[in-house]
Structure formats: structure tokens, C-alpha cells
Design a protein that fits this description.
Radius of gyration: 20 Å
Shape: globular
Strand order of the largest sheet: 7-6-15-16-17-14-18
Helix content: 10-25%
Order of helices and strands: EHEEEHEEEEHEEEEEHHEEEEHHEEEH
CATH topology of the largest domain: FAD/NAD(P)-binding domain
Largest sheet: 7 strands, mixed
CATH architecture of the largest domain: 3-Layer(bba) Sandwich
Length: 325
């Protein structure tokens, strides 16, 4: 590998874009590929005529000094703001205020704006699903339409573990380690009510047979004036109901949340569900990244550390500082 490698990154979520951002500053030639229509991964937001709905990651914390320094040095001060609301906790059918151990930050307008900022000056190909790696003297990436991209000196995969293993299994022993990591799914319901629904908090973490989290989405800055609600099922219920139809999931989650909050969200202007098939690691790797220096392959993501946006950042920042040869 040369001193200034050409790097291909699969995945344009937090980890992939942070790697691209850091390596491009170091003078490396970086290309990023993502199967989605836009950048963001699990920090995506749903755009509606009434405002954005944050249906993936709900907020981020900034506990780690390395992450704090990255934000201070690279992100404009207007991009991230504290989510200034009350937070609550549901335990044994009782709701109480939640004492936070760290501020919760959100990008203005939508969670996806964080990734959009990181991607602004990067070479990113969205709508491009890479399904095969090919090796000659360098790495070539092939998409599902048979188009080739490359050649690359190093390939980094920031997809969930299952998809990462599918790409790496023929070429690197790190695939065997990554295959041990399992992910929880998460069903998410997005609602916009025609009525103004008053809640004494912006987010509630639930210990409940069905619900894991409820957020008053419009309590975040620039998310519209109408009552918008995000309801996320807990990990186990989501896994047990992977095959359920969206209509069933929407009704079940809405009714469960209405019972918890003692409210009625109907009539609705908007209702939609989304299944995050790979939402959070069951058993994180507990190492910041995987690097195969012999074959010039690597993997990074929140599943390497402990889930969450901060974990994805820390995984990427650690790999960006690693010796690649």
C-alpha cells in the first residue's frame, strides 16, 4: 500500500462518513458507497410536509474527550444543540422524571443533518449496493447491477455485522470474529396528530412488554409545530415480531403508547412504520475496529464499541488514526 492510499468505504452512516472526513483531511483519496437514497444510516429522518421525523437514532451524547475534541474542531457551533426538554422513565407502570448523567444533543431540523454536513465535501455514491469484492493487485467493488468501482488500496466496511461478513468472508479472517456479533432489530412508528397533544416531557424510556421509547418529536428544534410522536418497540418485542405486517405493528404500538400516556393521538395526519433490521448490538465487539493489514481490509461501526452515535464516532476516529500498512 502506498503512503497515500485510495480508500473505498461501504456505508454512509456516522462511521463511514467520519472515516471519509478524517482520511480526506489527511490527503487520502476516498470514495463512499451506500445502498440508501441518502446518507445517514440509522441517523436518518423522514421528511414530511409538516416537518422531519427522527425515526432512527433519537439524540447523541458527547461523553468521550476525543469525541468532544472532534466536534469542537470540525463541526460548526450551530449544528448541534442541546435537546432542552424534560425526560422521563417508565418502570412498573409508573412514570417519573429521569435524572440525566449527560446532556443529549440533536442536530437542528433533523438527525440526518449531522451526516449531511459530514458528507458535504466527500465523494459519496448513494443508491449503490455493493454486493461483491474482487481482488487483483487492488480491490474492486461490484454493485448489484454489475458495475465496478476502484481500484482501491484499502476497503472499509461500516455496514452491520451480517452484511459485513457477507462481503469479507472469502477474503479475511476478521470475518469469523465479526460473525459472532448479533444485532437487535427495532420497529418504529411515526405519527403526526391533527390535535395538539400536551406531554410533560420530550422523551420517555420505557421498561414495558412492548414499548422501549416514546418521543415528542416536535419538542426538538425546527421539527414543525404539529404534534409528532416517535414510538419505538423494545428490542425483544421487535425480534419476536419481525415478520408481522406493518399495519399490525402500527396499531399495536399506537395503542400501547396511548395506554401508557393516557392520550388519544387520533385523528392522524400521518402514520408510518419502519423496521430497523440491525438497530443495536446484542454483544458488542468491545474493540474499536477490525483491521486486516495483510489483506488491506477493515470494518468499523457502533457495533464495535457499544452501540449509539458516540460509539460509531469513536470506532471511526480510532480507525482513522491507525497505521494502515
Amino acid at each position: 500500500m502506498s503512503n497515500s492510499p485510495r480508500i473505498g468505504i461501504i456505508g454512509a452512516g456516522i462511521a463511514g462518513l467520519t472515516l471519509g472526513y478524517q482520511w480526506q483531511k489527511q490527503g487520502f483519496a476516498v470514495e463512499i458507497f451506500d445502498k440508501g437514497r441518502a446518507v445517514g444510516g440509522r441517523t436518518s429522518s423522514r421528511r414530511t410536509q409538516w416537518g422531519y421525523l427522527d425515526h432512527g437514532a433519537q439524540y447523541l451524547t458527547v461523553r468521550n474527550p476525543q469525541f468532544q475534541e472532534f466536534i469542537k474542531a470540525n463541526l460548526p457551533p450551530y449544528l448541534l444543540v442541546p435537546w432542552t426538554t424534560n425526560f422521563a422513565r417508565l418502570e412498573e407502570d409508573k412514570i417519573s422524571l429521569d435524572e440525566l448523567d449527560a446532556l443529549r444533543y440533536i442536530p437542528r431540523q433533523s438527525m440526518s443533518n449531522l451526516c449531511k454536513y459530514l458528507a458535504a465535501n466527500l465523494s459519496v455514491k448513494t443508491g449503490t449496493k455493493i454486493h461483491k469484492l474482487k481482488r487483483d493487485q487492488h480491490w474492486i467493488l461490484e454493485d448489484i447491477n454489475g458495475h465496478d468501482y476502484g481500484a482501491f488500496d484499502l476497503v472499509v466496511i461500516t455496514a452491520p455485522p451480517t452484511q459485513t461478513v457477507e462481503l469479507l468472508s472469502q477474503y479475511s479472517p476478521i470475518a469469523q470474529e465479526i460473525a459472532q456479533i448479533e444485532m437487535w432489530p427495532c420497529w418504529t412508528l411515526m405519527l403526526i396528530s391533527e390535535n395538539q397533544v400536551s406531554l410533560p416531557f420530550g422523551g420517555i424510556k420505557c421498561k414495558h412488554p412492548v414499548i422501549g421509547w416514546i418521543a415528542l418529536n416536535n419538542s426538538k428544534p425546527e421539527r414543525g409545530s404539529l404534534t409528532s410522536i416517535i414510538i419505538q418497540a423494545n428490542w425483544q418485542w421487535s425480534e419476536d415480531n419481525l415478520a408481522q405486517k406493518q399495519e399490525f405493528v402500527a396499531d399495536f404500538l399506537r395503542q400501547a403508547a396511548e395506554k401508557i400516556l393516557d392520550v388519544n393521538f387520533s385523528p392522524l395526519k400521518y402514520e408510518s412504520t419502519h423496521l430497523w433490521r440491525y438497530a443495536a448490538p446484542k454483544n458488542p465487539a468491545r474493540q474499536p475496529y477490525f483491521l486486516d493489514q495483510i489483506n488491506h481490509l477493515a470494518a468499523s461501526g457502533d457495533w464495535c464499541v457499544a452501540g449509539k452515535i458516540e460509539g460509531a464516532f469513536l470506532s471511526a476516529l480510532s480507525l482513522a488514526e491507525a497505521k494502515l500498512i
